[in-house]
Design goal:
- The protein is α/β, with parallel strands linked by helices.
- It contains 15 helices and 8 strands.
- The protein has 2 domains: about 160 residues, 3-Layer(aba) Sandwich (Rossmann fold), CATH 3.40.50; about 200 residues, Up-down Bundle (Dehydroquinate synthase-like, alpha domain), CATH 1.20.1090.
- Helix 7 runs antiparallel to helix 8, helix 7 packs parallel to helix 11 and helix 11 crosses helix 15.
- It is globular.
- It binds 5,6-dihydroxy-NADP and zinc ion.
- 5,6-dihydroxy-NADP binds next to helix 2, helix 5, strand 6 and helix 7.
Length: about 400
């Protein structure tokens, strides 16, 4: 434990020994409506005189009947809709919705779909209230810091993965420039999230796997850093990881197993709603390197994470040594062998788990030979992402080694 002085002033980094839990200010204001039939509670969450814009993606919610249920629940309300928000939502598409929101004086946004629809709707919510003479892309360039307000939004989630349903983050891509950027603002955190595991029965296997891998990596990015004696956060994180390892493969084999779907859904929400990340160091380099792979090559978000994470853990094994050993023991039950062997085995187990879910972990499996690594590094540099990771020591050179080792 550190001294009282260090508790109050600043948490000490690992290299100075005995680091302590960071101070934190946690507010997670999203109401969660969880379970079979939870849509019945939707109507009560939306102001009676609201003008609602329902947003959705390419049509999965039409096919599986979720949209019909949403309309039935909102009967009598003033409702418009906007469809066509694509995976890795495009600024170009979202700006069309911003126009509708402004023109039609929409007062509430209801996102129905996966992370892309939710993130896209967060952007619409902030952009609609943004100063009319400033291009809302600026929201991404300023990471959301200058967002002063947003149209309130709620969510009906159909793909457990991103945690977007109850966090303040969103990721938006700009096709014209090949950019994929994130922003955060408390103004876009959904007021509520309807989480009905039954809605996930129709997910194609690739998206089931994507969800499990994404939630797994979110947890790892907040857990495999360096110890700060945060026992609750660590054990929550391990609980999420163990649940995903146990039920992820079952979700593929038994798509209509409610218990399995419910556990995967709640695990994904818990992985990125702020709880396990409170007071602990966070990495996020896997995500930043991954975003460039999606922007340049169109890989699914989770596919990029499956490629980058094993390679990153190996590269940073010295800095992450203590937590890698803890992870090996508590998540994979690896207790035999030297420390090096246990860490090797834990990284291998991670890779095998992603592969078992059906998500390849090598660039070559996606037809990439590594020849674009210099271009990927240029993109990172352009965004100022030259000091990533919990120690800000993932320089461009380290990123290069991580990409190279992922070939
Ligand atoms: O567009 P539709 O027709 O709805 O089909 C979608 C889409 O093609 C389909 N789908 C969703 N629910 C379904 C379904 N198909 C059948 N049955 C259902 N129940 O799945 C496809 C993928 O959907 P998408 O929303 O793109 O996937 P995901 O939820 O994985 O979201 C990925 C996006 O979220 C961002 C990613 O970068 C990416 O842009 N992230 C957002 C985060 C956040 N806000 O906190 C954090 C994450 O790290 C991530 O970066
Ligand atoms: Zn993610």
């Amino acid at each position: 434990m550190g001294t009282i002085k260090s508790v109050l002033l600043f948490p000490l980094p690992a290299i100075y020994g005995n680091p302590i839990m960071n101070n934190f200010n946690l507010h997670t204001p999203t109401r969660i409506l969880f379970g079979k039939g939870a849509i019945a509670e939707l109507r009560d969450q939306i102001p009676a005189h609201a003008r609602v814009l329902i947003t959705y993606g390419g049509g999965s919610v039409k096919k599986n009947g979720v949209l019909d249920q949403v309309y039935a629940a909102l009967e009598g309300l003033d409702v418009l809709e906007f469809s066509g928000i694509e995976p890795n939502p495009a600024y170009e598409t979202l700006m069309k919705a911003v126009e509708i929101v402004r023109k039609e004086n929409v007062t509430f946004l209801l996102a129905v779909g996966g992370g892309s629809v939710l993130d896209g709707t967060k952007f619409i919510a902030a952009a609609a209230n943004y100063p009319a003479d400033v291009d809302p892309w600026n929201i991404l360039l300023t990471h959301g810091n200058d967002v002063q307000s947003a149209i309130p939004m709620g969510s009906v989630l159909t793909l457990p993965a991103t945690g977007s349903e109850s966090n303040k983050g969103a990721v938006v891509s700009r096709r014209e420039t090949g950019d994929k950027r994130a922003f955060m603002s408390e103004h876009v955190q959904p007021v509520f999230a309807v989480l009905d595991p039954v809605y996930t029965y129709t997910l194609p296997p690739r998206q089931v796997a994507n969800g499990v891998v994404d939630a797994f990596v979110h947890t790892v990015e907040q857990y495999i850093t360096y110890p700060v004696n945060a026992k609750v956060q660590d054990r929550f994180a391990e609980g999420i990881l163990l649940t995903l390892v146990e039920d992820g493969p079952k979700a593929l084999k038994e798509p209509e197993n409610y218990d399995v779907r419910a556990n995967v859904m709640w695990a994904a929400t818990m992985a990125l709603n702020g709880l396990i990340g409170a007071g602990v160091p966070q990495d996020w380099a896997t995500h930043m390197l991954g975003h460039e792979l999606t922007a340049m090559h169109g890989l699914d978000h989770a596919q990029t994470l499956a490629v980058v994470l094993p390679s990153l853990l190996n590269e940073k094994r010295a800095e992450k040594h203590d937590k890698l050993l803890q992870y090996a023991e508590r998540v994979w039950n690896i207790t035999e062998g030297s420390e090096k062997e246990r860490i090797d085995a834990a990284i291998e187990a991670t890779r095998n788990f992603f592969e078992k879910m059906g998500t390849p972990t090598r660039l070559s499996a996606y037809g990439l030979d590594g020849s674009t690594i210099p271009a990927l590094l240029n993109k990172l540099q352009e965004k100022g992402m030259t000091q990533l990771g919990e120690h800000q020591d993932i320089t461009l050179d380290v990123s290069r080694r991580i990409y190279e080792a992922a070939r």
